[in-house]
Specification:
Elements lengths: L3 E2 L13 H10 L4 E4 L8 H11 L4 E12 L2 E8 L6 H27 L7 H7 L7 H10 L6 H9 L14 H10 L3 E4 L9 H14 L3 E6 L4 H13 L3 E5 L26 H7 L3
Helix pairs in contact: 5-6
Organism: Butyrivibrio proteoclasticus
Protein name: Polymerase/histidinol phosphatase N-terminal domain-containing protein
Pfam families: PHP
């Protein structure tokens, strides 16, 4: 049985591989399927669909997205698989989300320029990273290139980390909002990497129950950073609430250097047979 990867990023958000490089690498890794799940954008999906279809008949490409949402003041991510990214209402609402993200970035640039004395503009970010959804990883790269800092980590520690003076929170989109959008696009909503939220078992289970009521279909039980006990915990949670099992490396290329496509830190394996149930969930 071949492996798959249902959580990856390209340079259309905060990954470093182009869409074509990512698909080529999936073929090199002998993956049976790959989902592109860039943060809050579907910019790369048409290129990926066309390129995969033309070049690799042995790879299934799955159009996806990863929504960055806020739950009780903390980040919670929701992946959508098999989305119809051309759905008109989905596109309209995604654009509204993108507009609020742009306003937030413009404000953060002003704070860095006027308050921190580090001149940086939103136009400069767009020029440096064309066709990408601008994230804090892009700020870090540009600020390092401009000689403002000695490392990317310094950007987050001193300037735009969650609790730093120059950080501007994004407009809140809730996990329920993301689930609604994914369902609107005919996709399958998956709770991404739940272990990373560092919730108590009780809080995590309460979140899962709440999101099931909103239409959640699955959960990432296989993920790069999970220890065996953590994977068992999420699998048990999935079984308890009849959730689909999903999995992904969260591959970002050079931005997460130790995480490799399809295998995470080296031992992760996501079997292709989990796709059958995920595909069937699209019709429900």
């Amino acid at each position: 049985m071949r492996g798959i990867d249902l959580h990856t990023h390209s340079n259309c958000s905060d990954g470093t591989y182009s869409v074509k490089e990512l698909i080529d690498y999936a073929h090199e890794k002998n993956l049976a399927a790959i989902a592109l799940t860039d943060h809050d954008t579907v910019i790369g999906l048409d290129e990926a669909i066309g390129y995969t279809g033309k070049k690799y008949s042995d790879i299934e490409f799955i159009p996806g997205i990863e929504f960055s949402t806020v739950n009780e003041g903390k980040d919670v991510h929701v992946v959508g698989l098999y989305i119809d990214h051309h759905n008109k209402e989905f596109k309209r609402r995604l654009q509204a989300f993108a507009d609020s993200r742009r306003e937030r970035n413009e404000k953060m640039c002003r704070k860095l320029t006027e308050e921190a004395g580090l001149p940086i503009s939103y136009d400069e970010l767009l020029e440096a990273f064309p066709n990408a959804v601008i994230t804090r990883a892009h700020y870090a790269k540009l600020m390092l290139d401009k000689g403002y800092v000695n490392s990317r980590q310094e950007v987050f520690d001193k300037y735009i980390g969650d609790h730093c003076k120059y950080y501007v929170p994004r407009e809140n989109i809730t996990p329920e909002d993301a689930i609604e959008l994914i369902l609107l696009a005919g996709g399958v909503p998956i709770l991404a990497h739940p272990i990373l939220y560092h919730m108590s078992d009780e809080k995590l289970e309460a979140l899962v129950v709440r999101l099931i009521n909103a239409g959640l279909k699955g959960i990432e039980a296989i993920y790069s950073t999970y220890e065996p006990a953590e994977e068992r915990q999420i699998r048990n949670l999935a079984q308890k609430y009849d959730l689909l099992i999903s999995g992904g490396s969260d591959f970002h290329g050079a931005n997460k250097q130790k995480i490799d496509l399809g295998v995470g830190f080296g031992k992760m394996f996501i079997p292709e047979d989990i796709l059958t149930d995920i595909k069937n969930a699209r019709a429900n």
